[in-house]
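(Protein data)
===
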Amino acid sequence: MRRLLVVLLVCLWGVVCVAQTQNAVVKRNTYLRKGPSSADEKILLLKAGDELELVELEASDNYYHVRTLDGEEGYAYSKNVTVKQAAEKIRTDLAAPSGQPSEEFSSTWEKPAPKKTTFHGQEGDCPWNGDNSDSGTFVNKNRADTAENDGVQYHDVTWAAIAKLNYPVAKPLRKNWTPDQIAEITPFEGEAIRTIGYIVAFKPQSGGSGEGTNCHFNAPADTDTHMALVEGVGEAEKTSVVVEFTPRFLKAHPNWKKSKLSPWINSDSPVRISGWLMLDPDHRNHLNRFRSTLWEIHPITKIEVWQDNTWVNLDTLK
């Protein structure tokens, strides 16, 4: 009996330990050190996206005592680490005003034809088909309409519904796809959707040679802005769904900038993104590095942030 009691106590202790285990993720490169100070010896370089286990739940001198997946134990600077915490449950009616978010897409949802416009930017004019290198993709990326203007409703979907939606293994340019490959995405692409998640990256696609969709312009005001939206607090960018706003929409939404969104980037406060479902075949090499799927919300037509227990349109923030 005594032996059984000891075993039960050990098992109970194990359950408690598992329940108290808390994980974290590295949000920017930082060193694992032997002690909680920048003067302590470096053990190894932790890279953004690396998963960690907290040995102690509270930071000491701005350092977390952590353990890597390989079993290395040490200290990581707290400002370079995001602790995964249970996200506050958001009421269903706030998360999805139209009702319970759908866990899958329907081929019967409306798919209005994209509105084609020419963008008048700082670097010149860019038509709806960009540099015309892949007009079948660019017509969706550069659409200028919203669900409200098209008289259709946004369909509330879970983040996972986007992440798990199938798509073909195909060439980077849609103009080189087979009819069967096009047919696989046609039932869903162009649907107006809304979902919630957490932003872990904000990347204007400026600089360099630019993208064909934006006529190779490279000024921030003339290019797309890529954001990584993850399902849970502290998850890595490689697990994300990409959501992007375009210069056509940025022009009408001056608050869509990093300085306004910064309280919701790498935080435990969610955002709600509305826009058009689109597949971007050109970034297969980014899978499992900067995204988990080629499906995107692109372009974004509305950004809302969770503030004071309600959704607030980013456009209205002072």
